[in-house]
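Final paragraph of the annual report: two paired records, presented back to back.
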Amino acid sequence: MAKKKLFLGMAAMTLVFGFVTVGCVSSGKTYVYDKTVPEENLSELYIAGSFYFGMEPQKFLNFRGTFAGQRVDWKEDDIIKIPAGEHTLAFGYSGGGFDQSRGRSVTIISDSNLKLTYDFKPGRKYALTGYAGAGDKNISAEIIPRGFLRGFTPPSEITKFEGKWKGLGGDNDYFVFTGREFEAGGLAKGFFDFTDTALILDRKWERTAPGADWKEPPETIKAGFVKYPNNTTLVFPYQFDVDGNLVVKLQTYRKVNE
């Protein structure tokens, strides 16, 4: 049965012309796993706090496991700065919620024998995400990239996205990819990462209109009387169609030869 993946705890963006951004905040805490490791040798791991069951997002009720063989007490939505390098996580999740497609509550359990080994790169951000197919009781998990830490500049390299890609939404509906840097619609720019199916845009600078001054996004945003960390990472499904066009979130961008 097909599984529905959810890239979790990340900012959302509507591509109409240029960027319209909506911040998504985390209610978890930030930890440093080993404070003796220099900042430049750290990676960041986000523990996803929700997943899709059928069409409805659900909360994980419990995360239990070990990191590098040591018991950890990490909760959903926590962010942990870990030493870069290859590490193994052994863990399990339990949770549940209302399955709208079947009109009843369900329980989803994964045994604690789930195990993931991953090579974490310094200066990079990752997410531990869960997913379940409609009708499944067991959930699965994977680790995906989700951008770069503040102050970290990734090494430049030519990727399959290199160049300018123009959409149909007007003059400001475009992407420019140069090495590991991107600009979108003249309103946002920064660094990008990608998997086989996800384009990960890490906003480092933004402005209110083309031609205005570039500014760093604020580290926190305010909702009522409470301040939250500002998540500046945006994740979108992408593919290249049969004509070589870049399709981002169901919108087509054609390569511009300049």
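The closing record of the year follows.
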Amino acid sequence: MKKAFLVALVIIAIALIVFLIIMLSNDEESANTSANRNTYTSSANSGDELKINFKSCKVKKRTRIDVALGSTTYEIDGIDNKKCLFNYGNEIEEPDWDGILDTSCQVPVSLGEIKFRVTDLGVNFNAIEDYCETDIKTECKYVRDDIECDLRNDCLALDLCDCTTEMNRADKCGYGVPGDEMCLCDAGGFLYCEELFCPTDPSVCETDYCSNFTYSNCPGICAKDCIPSNCTGGICTDDCGGENSCYCP
């Protein structure tokens, strides 16, 4: 009798656990469905513009903009201490994206209306990066994917083609894309990712700027010379990455 009673208790306990698991699963599914239902969705093409007025900073629910290779979702939470509270997140070819807006911004209302460029990867919010914080902690040099590197506001994707690299830099630093006359090659490809460095005045060669590079990645505004990285007893290494191999002409 006692054994049968214990078996019954075990069966009831198992049934309760299964019931709780089902309820929790339904709650999560319901929450996701509710989030999707409360998100306004639209689509855009590369080259389009997204206008946001940070002066008025009208509260806006989650808005998702679908592009060719993914989407950008953002929301506006209103004004706090003369700053517009703005959050956004991106996904690239991730249909099961969790929808977390991992970048939070406090944009001064004095900036007024800003136009953001739409790309095939999402909306480019580089214009307000100084007022934003993201939970991405990976150093640029450890980013191995060219698309991820391109989306990071603090990183620059270096290309086998010097011109492509400088076009990427100009775009992210916001001083205009250099002309075709700077192109030194016809084809390239992703080389690696590094921390973004923006020159103070891109129209003037700056020693401090050029010294950040070596022969292999010397930007077009600087001059380069093949200087071995090490010479001992008249024998030099077979490379061009030595000190001052990239300099101001």
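Residues 102 and 135 are 6 Å apart (CA to CA). This concludes the annual technical report; the extension proposal builds directly on these records.
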